[in-house]
Input
Amino acid sequence: MKKYIVCVISALLMLINVLPSYANNITSTDVSSSAIENVIQNEVIAENGHNWSSLEDCWTKDQKNLLASFLGNTDNEQKTVGLFNIKSAKISEIKEIPLTSAQKFSDVNNLQEEYGNVKVFYVGIDYKVKSESKYYYNGVNYRLIDMVPENNQWKMAEMADVSVNDFAAENIGFGSASEKIAARIDQARNKGLFIDPSGNVIERIPTDISSKNTLSSDTSAVIDDHYPPTSIEIYCYNSNNYEYYGLNSPGVCNVDFVFYQECVLPNEWVVSTSPQEDLNAGAMCVKMFGWYYVYYPKFGNLNADLTDQSTNSQNFIAGQTNSTANGAVADMSSYGLQESNSAEIFPTYYRAGSEGYHSGYVSQDGSATLANEGYDSLQILQYYYNDSPTTNNEEVDLFGIG
Output
């Protein structure tokens, strides 16, 4: 009898060892990277097979709702945009990276506060698409994926484009041939051109100088300076927004970039009590956050750069502007913010809390305090962004536009 029991236990153990480990059944947040990777693998497998219900199950509740609204819109399928543009998908490379390395590209602090834990993966996905765009090209596309525990299950919270060159510079990339190709694509992207692996221009970001400068398909002809986009693609989930743009349901809206800033700032900053220099600093944060994600979209799967939701983007409410906020946007219209040494723009994170000196996050409360102490807008921005993880430990400065 004892021998029989031992045999049964041994057989069960063998069966457990050969069964696949699905991360969506995790009951603890302390699990191996390989177990969490299964969720990412499952999502990409679902992309490849166009199994949208399985794909949605890999995401957090907020993201699942956005995806459901996109996938349920027959216009998106007919236009073959976003996820509907994918012919095939397969992970070619994947690795977990330190949170300190991810902070420039992802708001990991906010995710940690909301979910208690976050793990970040750098992933190369080999896509074949029906039509190349700024969101997908044929070949290995690189994404940064944030994983969080929700209801005792690991879920995807974000899957954004990423600067491959920054990963290479920090020696945390793969060093593969496909990553080197992506690095050349990234170099052009930082100047407003989207190219494919062969160097052909897929798309140019419309800028205020587009009528003055004609860029050839030769990427060596890319202009040396940053110029702001004239528009930004926003996935409008708020009914106020999609109705404002003449849609009957959630969808992508092409939003004038200045109008976008004017409609975000009064919904992110306390305009009525903000000192002018604080409000100007806020205007720069709002502007450069949007600008960065035009270059490195957060929501390519929705065919958009950002959404109108404050939980994952910025709080955009179309038409809700304020004359004081508009004045701050105008005050900062001739300037941008960049890392001093590399001259690259970066995501200008900000939060309501008391973020500290060189934290990489502007504190909206602290910014007002600094303004009242005599700091100008640049000094406020430098107080928080200089020598921080968000800026690769570089200092920041303004650059002129136009």
Remarks:
- The mean pLDDT is 87.
- DSSP finds 15 helices and 13 strands in the chain.
- The longest helix spans residues 276-295.
- The first strand starts at residue 86 and ends at 97.
